[in-house]
Amino acid sequence: MHSHHHAEHEHTVCTEHGSGCHPLLTISGVCMGWDGREVLHDINLIVHRGDFITITGPNGGGKTTLLRIMLGLLKPTAGRVVRELEGMRIGYLPQKNMIDSHFPVTVREVMMSGLLGMRGLSAEQRDSAYARAMDRVALHEHENRPIGELSGGQLQRALLGRAIIADPGLLVLDEPLSYIDARFESRLNTIIEDISRNTTIIQVTHQMTALAAMSTRHFIVDRTLHECHASHHSYHTDCE
Q: Which one, 1, 6, 53, 119, has least CB within 10 Å?
């Protein structure tokens, strides 16, 4: 795994005073709580086009809640979220436990469902998008198997295929390595590195990995949000 410096990114990584900055998401003063417990407090974050953001933090610190608020799947109890995502395709890899693996669908059907809502695609375009995603996630011999028969890592790869099949402008990954088998992990790093050249990526993870080290911005969330400004992203971050 080679080290991945900002200069290698072909897209422009936005600087605070840079020109051409395009905010995709602006989160201002967001709070979230339920049952009398505040999970997120006064979260402020701007996601620019071209960012590769990693959000880490302890279990129960609010990482997935923040991600779901960013995607518009949860409404915060206070604050505002402005999304400039019109016309942008979003790929979402949820945590595997969010998926009902008893639902009788095949690997191919799960991956093809990532093209739902895309109008005007010919059968050939759909097939070639599927073939490209399938080459990346390497599940050819399982494509007609129901997802209930897959290992955790295989299901995670099928869900990754669904998330990337439509060539999204924004790719959101929730604990992408939680079930990935070790043999596939370096391949996953290569896939995401390739995609990051022209896609905005937000990933949540509880562990610092090579995938996190590729990111251009790193946040720690534990009820509040803190951006780590270390000059490089190391596996063992010592950001306070």
A: 119
